[in-house]
Specification:
The chain is globular and about 60 Å long. The mean pLDDT is 95. By secondary structure, the chain is of the alpha/beta class. It folds into two domains: 144 residues, NAD(P)-binding Rossmann-like Domain (Rossmann fold); 138 residues, Dihydrodipicolinate Reductase, domain 2 (2-Layer Sandwich), CATH 3.30.360. It has a six-stranded parallel sheet, sandwiched between helices. The chain has a five-stranded mixed sheet with strand order 8-7-9-11-10. Helix 5 runs parallel beside helix 7 and helix 5 packs across helix 9.
Amino acid sequence: MVRIRVGLLGTGNIGTDLLIKIVDKSKYLEVGMFSGIDPASEGIQRARQMGIAASATGINAILADSSIRIVFDATSAKSHCAHAPLLKEAGMIAIDLTPAAIGPYVVPAVDMNLSAMAEANINMVTCGGQATIPMVYAVSRVAEVSYSETITTIPSKSAGPGTRANIDEFTDTTAKGAKVIGGAKRSKSIIILNPAEPPILNQHTIYAVLAQEPDQKAIIASIEAMVETIRGYVPGYRLKHPPFFDGKRVTIMVEVEGAGDFLPKYAGNLDIMTSAALAAGEVIARKILVKGVAQ
Protein backbone atom coordinates (compact mmCIF):
# COMPACT_ATOMS: atom_id res chain seq x y z
CA MET A 1 0.00 0.00 0.00
CA VAL A 2 1.23 3.52 -0.82
CA ARG A 3 1.85 5.53 2.32
CA ILE A 4 2.35 9.22 2.93
CA ARG A 5 5.75 10.15 4.33
CA VAL A 6 5.70 12.18 7.51
CA GLY A 7 8.18 14.00 9.70
CA LEU A 8 8.09 14.14 13.49
CA LEU A 9 9.47 17.20 15.26
CA GLY A 10 10.25 16.67 18.92
CA THR A 11 11.91 13.52 20.25
CA GLY A 12 10.57 13.58 23.80
CA ASN A 13 7.82 11.41 25.28
CA ILE A 14 5.03 12.68 23.01
CA GLY A 15 7.10 12.46 19.84
CA THR A 16 8.39 8.99 20.70
CA ASP A 17 4.92 7.66 21.55
CA LEU A 18 3.59 9.03 18.25
CA LEU A 19 6.53 7.47 16.41
CA ILE A 20 5.69 4.04 17.80
CA LYS A 21 1.98 4.46 17.09
CA ILE A 22 2.65 5.36 13.45
CA VAL A 23 5.09 2.50 12.92
CA ASP A 24 2.91 -0.11 14.65
CA LYS A 25 -0.61 1.00 13.80
CA SER A 26 -0.84 3.27 10.75
CA LYS A 27 -1.96 1.96 7.37
CA TYR A 28 -1.43 5.27 5.61
CA LEU A 29 1.66 6.90 7.16
CA GLU A 30 5.36 6.13 7.21
CA VAL A 31 7.99 8.06 9.15
CA GLY A 32 10.55 9.71 6.92
CA MET A 33 12.38 11.67 9.62
CA PHE A 34 12.32 11.84 13.41
CA SER A 35 14.09 14.99 14.50
CA GLY A 36 14.82 16.98 17.64
CA ILE A 37 17.58 19.14 19.04
CA ASP A 38 19.13 16.90 21.71
CA PRO A 39 21.80 14.51 20.34
CA ALA A 40 21.55 12.47 23.55
CA SER A 41 17.78 12.04 23.28
CA GLU A 42 16.55 8.56 24.16
CA GLY A 43 13.90 9.02 21.49
CA ILE A 44 16.51 9.48 18.77
CA GLN A 45 18.37 6.37 19.92
CA ARG A 46 15.15 4.36 19.93
CA ALA A 47 14.21 5.57 16.43
CA ARG A 48 17.57 4.56 15.03
CA GLN A 49 17.25 1.13 16.64
CA MET A 50 13.92 0.82 14.83
CA GLY A 51 15.60 1.65 11.54
CA ILE A 52 14.00 5.12 11.34
CA ALA A 53 16.05 8.08 10.07
CA ALA A 54 16.67 10.39 13.02
CA SER A 55 18.47 13.68 13.52
CA ALA A 56 19.37 16.24 16.18
CA THR A 57 19.24 19.18 13.74
CA GLY A 58 15.59 19.98 14.45
CA ILE A 59 13.39 21.28 11.67
CA ASN A 60 16.30 21.50 9.22
CA ALA A 61 16.42 17.72 8.80
CA ILE A 62 12.72 17.67 7.90
CA LEU A 63 12.85 20.60 5.53
CA ALA A 64 15.73 18.90 3.71
CA ASP A 65 13.47 15.96 2.73
CA SER A 66 11.03 17.14 0.06
CA SER A 67 9.24 13.77 0.07
CA ILE A 68 7.71 14.55 3.48
CA ARG A 69 4.10 15.73 3.14
CA ILE A 70 2.89 15.94 6.75
CA VAL A 71 4.80 17.12 9.82
CA PHE A 72 3.73 16.42 13.41
CA ASP A 73 5.14 19.13 15.70
CA ALA A 74 5.51 17.88 19.29
CA THR A 75 7.89 20.57 20.52
CA SER A 76 6.54 23.66 22.32
CA ALA A 77 4.18 26.52 21.55
CA LYS A 78 7.08 28.93 21.17
CA SER A 79 8.99 26.58 18.87
CA HIS A 80 5.95 25.89 16.71
CA CYS A 81 5.48 29.61 16.10
CA ALA A 82 8.92 29.55 14.49
CA HIS A 83 8.33 26.27 12.67
CA ALA A 84 4.91 27.07 11.16
CA PRO A 85 5.97 29.56 8.45
CA LEU A 86 8.91 27.37 7.43
CA LEU A 87 6.71 24.31 7.01
CA LYS A 88 4.12 26.29 5.08
CA GLU A 89 6.78 27.65 2.73
CA ALA A 90 8.02 24.10 2.16
CA GLY A 91 4.50 22.98 1.23
CA MET A 92 4.21 20.63 4.20
CA ILE A 93 1.01 20.22 6.22
CA ALA A 94 1.60 20.84 9.91
CA ILE A 95 -0.25 18.94 12.64
CA ASP A 96 0.47 20.97 15.76
CA LEU A 97 0.49 19.08 19.07
CA THR A 98 1.47 22.22 21.01
CA PRO A 99 -0.93 24.85 22.40
CA ALA A 100 0.33 27.44 19.87
CA ALA A 101 -3.10 27.45 18.19
CA ILE A 102 -1.87 29.03 14.96
CA GLY A 103 -4.17 26.93 12.80
CA PRO A 104 -7.81 25.96 13.32
CA TYR A 105 -8.64 23.69 16.26
CA VAL A 106 -9.25 20.05 15.39
CA VAL A 107 -10.91 17.42 17.58
CA PRO A 108 -11.37 14.26 15.48
CA ALA A 109 -14.31 12.98 17.55
CA VAL A 110 -16.30 16.10 16.70
CA ASP A 111 -15.31 16.34 13.03
CA MET A 112 -14.01 13.00 11.73
CA ASN A 113 -13.86 14.43 8.19
CA LEU A 114 -11.55 17.28 9.28
CA SER A 115 -13.27 20.17 7.52
CA ALA A 116 -10.24 22.25 8.56
CA MET A 117 -8.15 20.35 6.01
CA ALA A 118 -8.22 23.38 3.73
CA GLU A 119 -5.59 24.80 6.07
CA ALA A 120 -1.86 24.04 5.92
CA ASN A 121 -1.63 24.03 9.70
CA ILE A 122 -4.09 22.38 12.07
CA ASN A 123 -3.94 22.54 15.85
CA MET A 124 -4.77 19.57 18.09
CA VAL A 125 -5.76 21.98 20.91
CA THR A 126 -4.46 20.29 24.09
CA CYS A 127 -4.65 16.90 25.76
CA GLY A 128 -7.32 18.31 28.05
CA GLY A 129 -9.14 19.72 25.06
CA GLN A 130 -9.17 16.38 23.27
CA ALA A 131 -10.75 14.78 26.34
CA THR A 132 -13.22 17.49 27.40
CA ILE A 133 -14.29 19.41 24.29
CA PRO A 134 -16.14 16.40 22.82
CA MET A 135 -18.21 16.23 26.03
CA VAL A 136 -19.07 19.94 25.82
CA TYR A 137 -20.02 19.41 22.18
CA ALA A 138 -22.09 16.32 23.03
CA VAL A 139 -24.19 18.46 25.35
CA SER A 140 -24.34 21.55 23.12
CA ARG A 141 -25.59 19.61 20.10
CA VAL A 142 -28.81 18.84 22.00
CA ALA A 143 -29.00 21.78 24.44
CA GLU A 144 -27.66 25.35 24.56
CA VAL A 145 -24.61 25.55 26.84
CA SER A 146 -24.38 28.97 28.46
CA TYR A 147 -21.15 28.18 30.29
CA SER A 148 -18.70 25.30 30.47
CA GLU A 149 -15.88 24.64 32.91
CA THR A 150 -13.37 21.86 32.39
CA ILE A 151 -10.94 20.56 34.99
CA THR A 152 -8.11 18.35 33.79
CA THR A 153 -6.14 16.36 36.38
CA ILE A 154 -2.96 14.69 35.22
CA PRO A 155 -0.37 12.69 37.15
CA SER A 156 2.74 14.76 37.78
CA LYS A 157 4.92 12.04 36.29
CA SER A 158 3.27 12.49 32.90
CA ALA A 159 3.74 16.27 32.90
CA GLY A 160 7.04 16.83 31.15
CA PRO A 161 8.93 20.11 30.77
CA GLY A 162 6.91 21.04 27.66
CA THR A 163 3.61 20.71 29.53
CA ARG A 164 4.89 22.62 32.54
CA ALA A 165 6.28 25.43 30.40
CA ASN A 166 2.95 25.85 28.57
CA ILE A 167 0.42 25.83 31.44
CA ASP A 168 -0.97 29.28 30.54
CA GLU A 169 -1.26 28.36 26.86
CA PHE A 170 -2.89 25.06 27.86
CA THR A 171 -5.68 26.66 29.87
CA ASP A 172 -6.27 29.45 27.34
CA THR A 173 -6.35 27.15 24.31
CA THR A 174 -8.57 24.56 26.02
CA ALA A 175 -11.07 27.21 27.09
CA LYS A 176 -11.21 28.72 23.61
CA GLY A 177 -11.67 25.27 22.09
CA ALA A 178 -14.68 24.64 24.33
CA LYS A 179 -16.31 27.66 22.69
CA VAL A 180 -15.07 27.34 19.11
CA ILE A 181 -15.61 23.58 18.78
CA GLY A 182 -17.59 22.63 21.87
CA GLY A 183 -20.28 25.27 21.33
CA ALA A 184 -20.27 26.82 24.82
CA LYS A 185 -21.13 30.52 25.00
CA ARG A 186 -18.54 31.07 27.75
CA SER A 187 -15.87 28.74 29.07
CA LYS A 188 -13.11 28.26 31.60
CA SER A 189 -10.34 25.67 31.84
CA ILE A 190 -8.30 24.49 34.82
CA ILE A 191 -5.38 22.05 34.98
CA ILE A 192 -4.17 20.22 38.10
CA LEU A 193 -0.93 18.25 38.41
CA ASN A 194 -1.47 15.46 40.94
CA PRO A 195 1.71 14.12 42.63
CA ALA A 196 0.06 10.99 44.05
CA GLU A 197 2.05 7.75 44.19
CA PRO A 198 1.29 5.46 42.53
CA PRO A 199 0.21 7.87 39.78
CA ILE A 200 -3.51 8.30 39.23
CA LEU A 201 -5.07 7.89 35.81
CA ASN A 202 -5.76 11.00 33.76
CA GLN A 203 -9.15 12.41 34.83
CA HIS A 204 -11.42 15.20 33.59
CA THR A 205 -14.49 16.88 35.04
CA ILE A 206 -16.76 18.84 32.72
CA TYR A 207 -19.43 21.20 34.04
CA ALA A 208 -22.05 22.61 31.68
CA VAL A 209 -24.62 25.22 32.61
CA LEU A 210 -27.61 25.06 30.28
CA ALA A 211 -29.86 27.84 29.06
CA GLN A 212 -33.02 25.89 29.85
CA GLU A 213 -34.19 22.84 31.75
CA PRO A 214 -32.40 19.83 30.24
CA ASP A 215 -33.81 16.88 28.34
CA GLN A 216 -31.78 14.44 30.41
CA LYS A 217 -32.36 11.42 28.19
CA ALA A 218 -31.25 13.28 25.06
CA ILE A 219 -28.12 14.60 26.77
CA ILE A 220 -27.15 11.21 28.20
CA ALA A 221 -27.67 9.54 24.82
CA SER A 222 -25.52 12.20 23.12
CA ILE A 223 -22.74 11.83 25.71
CA GLU A 224 -22.71 8.03 25.46
CA ALA A 225 -22.57 8.18 21.66
CA MET A 226 -19.63 10.58 21.82
CA VAL A 227 -17.76 8.34 24.24
CA GLU A 228 -18.06 5.46 21.77
CA THR A 229 -16.80 7.70 18.95
CA ILE A 230 -13.70 8.65 20.95
CA ARG A 231 -13.10 5.04 21.93
CA GLY A 232 -12.73 4.29 18.23
CA TYR A 233 -9.23 5.79 18.41
CA VAL A 234 -8.67 6.05 22.20
CA PRO A 235 -9.88 2.71 23.63
CA GLY A 236 -9.01 3.76 27.20
CA TYR A 237 -11.46 6.70 27.21
CA ARG A 238 -14.48 6.09 29.44
CA LEU A 239 -17.10 7.69 31.66
CA LYS A 240 -16.03 7.42 35.28
CA HIS A 241 -19.60 8.00 36.50
CA PRO A 242 -22.95 8.54 34.75
CA PRO A 243 -23.71 12.21 34.01
CA PHE A 244 -25.11 14.04 37.05
CA PHE A 245 -27.87 16.64 36.75
CA ASP A 246 -28.61 19.45 39.18
CA GLY A 247 -31.26 21.75 37.78
CA LYS A 248 -29.80 23.36 34.66
CA ARG A 249 -26.32 22.02 35.40
CA VAL A 250 -24.81 18.77 34.19
CA THR A 251 -21.54 17.27 35.42
CA ILE A 252 -19.58 14.72 33.41
CA MET A 253 -16.53 12.83 34.68
CA VAL A 254 -14.26 10.91 32.33
CA GLU A 255 -11.06 8.93 32.74
CA VAL A 256 -8.39 8.20 30.14
CA GLU A 257 -6.14 5.16 30.39
CA GLY A 258 -3.25 5.14 27.95
CA ALA A 259 -2.66 2.34 25.47
CA GLY A 260 0.84 1.71 26.82
CA ASP A 261 2.46 1.85 23.37
CA PHE A 262 5.47 3.71 24.79
CA LEU A 263 4.21 5.75 27.70
CA PRO A 264 2.88 4.27 30.96
CA LYS A 265 -0.84 3.59 30.99
CA TYR A 266 -1.37 6.32 33.58
CA ALA A 267 -0.23 8.89 30.99
CA GLY A 268 -3.62 9.01 29.31
CA ASN A 269 -3.25 12.77 28.92
CA LEU A 270 -0.38 12.23 26.48
CA ASP A 271 -1.90 9.15 24.85
CA ILE A 272 -5.12 10.93 23.90
CA MET A 273 -3.10 13.69 22.23
CA THR A 274 -0.94 11.34 20.16
CA SER A 275 -3.95 9.17 19.32
CA ALA A 276 -5.94 12.20 18.16
CA ALA A 277 -2.99 13.45 16.11
CA LEU A 278 -2.61 10.05 14.48
CA ALA A 279 -6.33 9.96 13.67
CA ALA A 280 -6.09 13.41 12.08
CA GLY A 281 -2.94 12.44 10.17
CA GLU A 282 -4.62 9.38 8.72
CA VAL A 283 -7.61 11.41 7.52
CA ILE A 284 -5.24 13.87 5.82
CA ALA A 285 -3.21 11.04 4.28
CA ARG A 286 -6.32 9.37 2.87
CA LYS A 287 -7.40 12.66 1.31
CA ILE A 288 -3.97 13.14 -0.26
CA LEU A 289 -4.02 9.60 -1.62
CA VAL A 290 -7.53 9.95 -3.03
CA LYS A 291 -6.64 13.26 -4.63
CA GLY A 292 -3.55 11.66 -6.18
CA VAL A 293 -5.62 8.86 -7.68
CA ALA A 294 -8.18 11.35 -9.03
CA GLN A 295 -5.43 13.31 -10.75
